[in-house]
Design goal:
The protein is α+β, with helices and mostly antiparallel strands. 16% of the residues lie in helices and 46% in strands.
């Protein structure tokens, strides 16, 4: 009887420790969320319309938030009246998007993935935390390269969805998506 009670107490303690470790790991993971970091913007010109929650930055715009970097000709930030960012759009020739890999946590895959993208327009939704690249879009995830007219990236799930776009009515050409997948362990060719 004593042995069963001790075994049960040991199991309860072990389960409690595992739960505590799981909660600590989840907290550490949440701490690495770039979108919870302050946004820093540099530009040649800024126009702030607090009444409408629209901030427009033009000329050599650099936006940084944690490990995320965006460079564009124009960046527009849309916020609520309380100042919460709802969405960000960027336009340029081209727009550059970079998300630096976070150092892996204990027990995670040690291979770090950096993602990059270029396009004519970029849209970011704070609600879904997804990035949309539009117009002559190219995207690199680790060593893999995607190109198309529309590329959607979900940083949380590391999911990429590429679309070719509509037919070219002048030439009749049907656009295509292009994907290059690198074998596991091979370094990618030069990225922009």
């Amino acid at each position: 009887m004593y042995r069963k009670t001790m075994c049960r107490k040991t199991m309860i303690i072990a389960a409690s420790l595992l739960l505590l470790i799981g909660v600590s790991s989840a907290s550490a993971l949440a701490g690495n969320d770039d979108t919870q970091q302050p946004i820093h913007i540099e530009a040649d010109r800024a126009e702030i319309d607090e009444g409408h929650g629209v901030m427009t930055y033009t000329g050599h715009v650099k936006l940084r938030q944690g490990g995320i970097e965006v460079s564009a000709d124009t960046v527009v930030v849309y916020a609520t009246k309380a100042g919460e960012v709802q969405r960000i759009t960027a336009q340029g020739q081209p727009v550059h998007y970079l998300q630096k890999a976070q150092p892996p946590l204990a027990g995670q895959d040690s291979e770090q993935k950096e993602v990059r993208g270029v396009s004519q327009r970029m849209e970011y939704s704070a609600e879904s935390k997804q990035v949309l690249l539009l117009g002559k879009a190219e995207f690199w995830q680790g060593g893999n390269r995607f190109s198309g007219n529309r590329i959607q990236y979900d940083p949380k799930t590391e999911r990429v969805l590429a679309n070719a776009g509509s037919d070219n009515s002048v030439t009749g050409d049907k656009p295509r998506v292009s994907v290059t997948l690198q074998p596991k362990g091979k370094k990618a060719d030069a990225q922009p």
